Amino acid sequence: MSLRNSGRKVCAKINCQVGVQANKMQTQIEQDATSVLRTIAAYGVEGNVPARGHHMLRAAQLKELTGLSPERLNDAVELLAINAYVELVRTVGGAPFTFAFVTATPMGRFEYQRLKSQSKDTDRYPSSDSDRVTIWLH
Fold this sequence. Notes:
The protein is built from six helices and three strands. By secondary structure, it is mainly alpha-helical. The chain has one domain (3-131): Winged helix-like DNA-binding domain superfamily/Winged helix DNA-binding domain (Arc Repressor Mutant, subunit A), CATH 1.10.10.10. Strands 1-3-2 form a three-stranded antiparallel beta sheet. Helix 3 crosses helix 5 (70-82). The longest helix has 19 residues, at 106-124. It is globular. It starts with a helix and ends in a 14-residue tail after the last helix.
């Protein structure tokens, strides 16, 4: 088992509290990655049906949905892929994107549901703007 995977399991066991506390000073790329993951995992069907979050999105389609520039989108998607939240399909000639298609992995859908749950908790118990939830990255 790699260190990355063991860290992820520890993160899941402690409910990713590290990610919640570490978001006090979110970087732009963390905000972008969180936005991209939410978009991918929530895309598709209305309601809480099994097909939700299992769709493959084209790079240009994801750009339109998130409003991010190709450069920022590429960085966010690469960071999500490194952390095993998404899988990428790459093709030749896809410039300005570094990927052609992207889909959420089971870990990505888990992280999306965790973010959604934390967001509801934050709505119930509002605090400062710096307590926004973000994905857990390593």
